[in-house]
Amino acid sequence: MKAALVVAASLLAIARPASAVEVSAGGAVHPLGFIGGAGIELGVGDNSAVEIRGSFMAYQYEATDYEEEGSGPMGGLRARWYPQDTGNATRLWLAAGLSSASVDYEWKEYSDGAVVDSKEDTAMLVLVEAGVGYKILFGDERFVLDPQILLGYFVSPDTEIDVLAGAGLSLGVRF
């Protein structure tokens, strides 16, 4: 927790005064479940920003003779790059991020319809992700609508969930 506070304070120190600070909440759905949460985006230049996020994730994975479900809190950082030179206005963004989640999960293995093995446990998942979105400003550029597409990979030897692809939407306020 102390490390997260140090990172947040450092990012606040390098945020340029001309860049907006944005607080948002939203979520993403994907074929296995959802991720929902809130974040703060800090501008670090005319065309870049750092986003600090806290989320909750839930998933359910099913295969022929196997099923797994899990959920838990997730937090991370994402760097955004705005390739269009439109200042602080509505524009396209590209992102790369890293998050970790502490997930309580349960799996069951079946043979001929009967459970042959099962386990409940907790795992630490690391999500390496890429995203693309379009920040839409309205209300005198005070409010933000931010549709996005996410693609990621969970790194964990403990769970079967690995690839994540989904669509998301967040709403925010700029200061």
Summarize the structure.
The protein is mainly beta. The protein contains 1 helix and 8 strands; from the N terminus they run H-E-E-E-E-E-E-E-E.
What does this structure look like?
This protein is mostly beta strands and 175 residues long. The model is unreliable at 11-18 (pLDDT under 50). 7% of the residues lie in helices and 71% in strands. It has one helix at residues 2-14; strands at 21-30, 33-43, 48-63, 66-81, 91-111, 114-138, 143-155, 163-174. The protein has one domain (2-174): Porin.
Strand order of the largest sheet: 1-2-3-4-5-6-7-8
Shape: elongated
The total domain count is: 1
- Major sheet characteristics: 8 strands, antiparallel, barrel
CATH arch. level architecture: Beta Barrel
Number of strands: 8
Report the order of strands and helices.
Answer: HEEEEEEEE
The averaged pLDDT comes out at 87
Measured by DSSP, the beta-strand proportion falls in: over 45%
Radius of gyration: 18 Å
Uncertain runs: 11-18
The oligomeric state is single chain
Q: Kindly, what is the distance between the CA atoms of the first and last residues, rounded to a whole number of angstroms?
A: 25 Å
Q: Which structural class is indicated by helix and strand composition?
A: mainly beta
CATH class: Mainly Beta
- Number of helical stretches of at least 4 residues: 1
CATH topology: Porin
> Helicity, in percent?
under 10%
